[in-house]
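During the reporting period, we have paired protein sequences with backbone structure tokens. One record among many follows, to show the layout:
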Amino acid sequence: MEKVRNQISEDNIIRSNEIILNYFFTRIHTPVFSFSFEGESGCLVLTNIRLLFYETKGIIHTSYKFKWDRLLREIRDVSTGGSWNKYLTIDGTKYFLENADTNAVRMTFMKAIQRAGEEQLAFPSSTQQVQQMVNVNINSPSASPDTIYCTHCGFKNDSDANYCKKCGTKIV
């Protein structure tokens, strides 16, 4: 886990309002009597805002490389599958977990996704709604030069903010 932590720190990928909740190591699975492989080898990193995946590089001298991230609010399905629930499926992609109870991990993901959704109670459903909300807020008497509104979610941020404190989007 230390190698993953070091790589995350080196990549400077965690935002100021983001907290790492847990790490889940994954492996490649070879079904019996098959020459095919399933899953990916690496580490799923669950934060309060996103799910990140660091891919394993190398066999003897293992290192990790950032591969992708997804906002928790964009994840639509987390389920378990296989005999004895041996893998976790996230939006259709299988992850074979090392030394973890897939049902417990699924519940951890579901709770994090639910919390992320609750933090965005009045989240607008379209870009146009956000733009309307931002334009109304900018023109309102309560707007000040010390604040800037996120064009993604409409949250009121300090004018010197680089990322939205609510959704983590880069402020332009």
Q: What stands out?
A: The chain is about 25% helix and 30% strand. Confidence is low (pLDDT under 50) at residues 121-125, 136-143. The chain has two domains: 2-118, 121-172. The helical segments are 2-11, 102-118, 127-139.
